[in-house]
Structure formats: C-alpha cells, structure tokens
Specification:
Blueprint (H helix, E strand, L loop, with lengths): L2 E2 L3 E3 L5 H14 L5 E6 L4 H11 L3 E8 L4 E7 L17
Parallel strand pairs: 2-3
Antiparallel strand pairs: 1-2, 3-5, 4-5
C-alpha cells in the first residue's frame, strides 16, 4: 500500500511492476510548480531515465537521501513558461 502525505509517496510496499505507473499518475496530478517526495528501497535511477523520455525538461530531480536502505527523491513539475519565452516572460533575455 502506498502512503501519500502532503506530497510524499512511499512506494516501498507497492509491487515493483506497479511502481512506475503509480509514480507517473501522482506526478501527472501535481500542479505546475509543485513537487512530490518519493521514498523507495533502491536508487530510482531507471525511473529518472523514464522521466527524461516522458517529460523531457518538464521535471526536476533532487536526491534527498541516497541509501543504502532508503532513497528519497524530490521530483518537481516545472511551471510552463508564459508568453512563448523559455524564461517566463523574458526575464533572462535582457
């Protein structure tokens, strides 16, 4: 059973074959600019690769704890730039 508390998702007791689907569903529910904390029993590096393919530059990935028994990662959903600019209205362009 997963535990979700204030944007925390503990997937250690979810069957491994179901974990990525649960994580992506939770990520998809996040509003832009928000993040979730993932708690896992191993380095979720393969998940990071899937995020790169699936969500390109629309996410952030920060390790909070790196094992050996518990891995915690903060996964953020980046806000989409407005006004057609890559830098949220041109703040970095001038």
């Amino acid at each position: 059973m997963s535990t979700v508390t204030s944007n925390t998702l503990d997937i250690r007791e979810i069957a491994p074959r179901d974990r990525h689907a649960v994580i992506f569903a939770r990520f998809d529910e996040l509003p832009a600019g928000e993040s979730l904390e993932l708690i896992n029993d191993h380095d979720p590096k393969p998940l990071h690769g899937q995020f790169q393919i699936r969500s390109a530059n629309a996410f952030s990935w920060d390790y909070l704890e790196t094992g050996p028994n518990v891995w915690r990662v903060q996964i953020g959903k980046k806000a989409i730039a407005s006004g057609g600019s890559c830098c949220s209205g041109g703040g970095c362009c001038g």
